[in-house]
Amino acid sequence: MTRQPHDQFAKSLLSEVLSPWGDVEISREVSDEPRSIDLYFQPNPQQDPSPLGLLGRMAQTPCLLEPYRNPVTVSQIGTCLLKA
Asked: What is the mean pLDDT of the chain?
């Protein structure tokens, strides 16, 4: 369970939008340390996500999505990159 309602909303929204185009995994654990990725998406090669616009372009290959409510800081970007 998330402590931030906007975080749960973003994960649920992305899951609903992306699930017709592939597999969505929310709060996927990263193996190197006890961290988790907000959302992991594995596209279905038989589906074309381009109707989703920019999100569809990002979802053409497996991707990690970390939605933020506010503009991110340099430190937060670094933390996200460590999860990849």
From this structure: 85
Nearest to 66 by CA among 45, 37, 44: 37
Number of residues that make up the chain = 84
Per-residue confidence band for 79, with pLDDT thresholds at 50, 70 and 90: confident
**Residue 66 is encoded by which pair of tokens?**
């970390």
Q: Which helix (H) or strand (E) holds 58?
A: helix 54-58
Residues 65/83, Cβ–Cβ less than 8 Å: no
Q: Residues of 23-35 as b/e, b for ≥16 C-beta within 10 angstroms?
A: ebebebeeeeeee
pTM (predicted TM-score): 0.67
